[in-house]
Amino acid sequence: MSAETSVPRPRESGVDISDSGLFKGLMSEAEFAFAFFDPEGRFVRANEVFSDVVGVPEERLLGRTPAETLTADLSQLVTHAVQDVTESDCPVTERARVRSAEGDTRHWALSFSPVHDEQGQLQAVALVGADMTESRQTEEDLRRSEERYRSLVEAQSQLVWITSPTGAVVEDAPQWRAITGQGLEEYLVHGWLEAVHPDERRHTEEVWKEALRGRTMFEWNYRVRTRASGFRHFEVRAVPIIRHGRVVEWVGANTDVTPQREAEEMRGRLTDQLGAAALRTARLQGATAMLAEALTVEQVVQVIIDVGRTALAADRSAVALLDLDRAVLKLVNGGGVPEVPGATGEEVPLSHSSVLTMAVNSRRPVFAESPESLKAQLLDAGGDEEVLNGFLATSDERAWVGLPLLAAGRALGALRFSFTRPQKISQEDGVFLEALAGQCALAVERATLFEREHKTAETLQRSLLPDRLPVVKGLELAQRFRSGSRHVQVGGDWYDAFVLQDGRVAAVVGDVMGKGVKAAAGMGRIRNAMRALALTNPPPAAVLGGLDRVFDATEEEEQVTTLAYMVVEPGTGEGTLALAGHPPPVLVSPQGTAVLCDAEPGTPLGWPTTRKQFRFVVPPGHTAVLYSDGLVENRKRGLDAGLSEICSVVTEAPPEVVTSPHMLLDFLVDRMLAGYEQDDDVTALAIHVPAATKSD
């Protein structure tokens, strides 16, 4: 709030505030805010504008004081102003800031005046308010504009010069001469153009003369020779001063923009460097992402070749792994090294002088930007000059990069990139290549460990599966096992079939959830325990109950194992079945129809439950198929959809396939996996009861 007291106005008399005609014009039509107060300071009248300003309806104002109706700061201002008018009988002017209903601040000029009756007695105090927001804003904008202009002029150090209407120098410019080193006579005779850089003088003079002829603004930039014999960048702007239609003089201002120009050049260089760094970072991130997905050494090598071609524009890329026992490097991709005299074969002895061996032996990158650089480095490493000359004479390679593959300080091998043109390798490129080699080394180490574990687990898994199925009269058995471990670790799928003491045959398909050696070992324990239990007490419910106890004693709580176990009598196909959280068997008829067993699925092994067994008959001519979930379920197909699909696939099998368990399994596996990426082991076991013949 701010308060201003104006010069007292002459008294107004003979005004009746109850005159309805007066108030209709003043209170309703005017754009000003009006209000009237009695001598005690209570509202008598107020128009709609005033009500909108204070945010209080008129009916709530009448008969009340400002303190009872207005905000604290506004009521204090109005109360004091009315009191001052009442006591002094003189007008009072105030300024107030009021926040509108929309939330913005408005500035108001408020005038409080006494109103007298015909006898001269104070009858009321009149308030007239005018919205001064736009005026205040205009004043503020003008003030800020003036401050900005003054600051801008003071901040710029400009060199001002003046010429005649024809462009001739007529006045001295001491600041200009202090910069350029021109003498007074030289400046007056030859002018400012004499100090412009020779390469830019002619063009500058042409543009200057064009501005003189057209009486248009002269805007240009050029380099100016300084007193120290160097050159600085200036921008010039000159305008004609015109009076009565004639040019009386030209006034020009030169601004030294050398720091800006240098900053722009530096910014350009930094932008280029940052762009190159961002590109290298993106390429490294891309390579890291691809290497993270590569599981085998072969896949890692392919990623390295792709990165060499795309990120480095290398013409050839080679990867060699170290065989420390034999002191040789084994080339994983022989095509990465040209077949020319002096080049190595698939094995490179560490004693041989080459880019690869030098990188491994020194544990440092090797950068050869030209044939001369390569020759010098290899000769220093003890290379044979005659062999080197023969290689360089026949090879189309002209630049080389050798990078050691190091993991925890241990050499795993080396990378070799080559180019058919000389290649400049900057310090930034070197940092990128070393980082790339570090990522490649981690990927190679991980892939090597993966392949080693994969081979061990696969061998273990294969060893735990039966070499062959039993041959039993009145029963035909067939199995299919397709590993899903080409891109993942081996799983815990297994199958088994064996003859019990009473001549019946036990058949089982199980799945130990998980991958790798741990899953394969768990599968072996469960399989052996199941055989022992089945041979002593073969009913499926008893076997699963015994397996629950074994599971609790030997397996971890988080391990999940499912299986389908059945006992069948050869010839008749009479049998019993129990499921431990496993997909139901499918029964295929000689006519090519398929029915899923509706036995209770049960819970996985180790879960507390009462195991149940069900009668399950494989009539003569029929085939029962036990299988793991890898046959019917994958990332794109749910279990329910897979179970429905396997029944549908059976109906498409030719008659000769339906009656042959071996052909049936081939047909089911091929058709169920068609169009899907196999991401799990697939195990299937068929129990076929041959149809009875007339001789039988």
From TrEMBL:
Query: Where is each PAC domain found?
Result: 92-144
Classify the source by domain of life.
Bacteria
Pfam families from the UniProt entry: GAF_2, PAS_3, PAS_4, SpoIIE
Domain PAS intervals: 19-89, 145-215
- Record has Isomerase as a keyword: no
InterPro entries named among the record's database cross-references: Bact_Sigma-Reg, GAF, GAF-like_dom_sf, PAC, PAS, PAS-assoc_C, PAS-like_dom_sf, PAS_4
The record's section on PROSITE patterns has: PAC, PAS
Keywords, comma-separated and alphabetical:
Hydrolase
The record ties this protein, via PANTHER family, to: STAGE II SPORULATION PROTEIN E (PTHR43156:SF2), STAGE II SPORULATION PROTEIN E-RELATED (PTHR43156)
Instruction: Tell me which NCBIfam families the record gives.
Output: sensory_box
Q: What is this protein called?
A: SpoIIE family protein phosphatase
Q: Which organism is it from?
A: Nonomuraea roseola
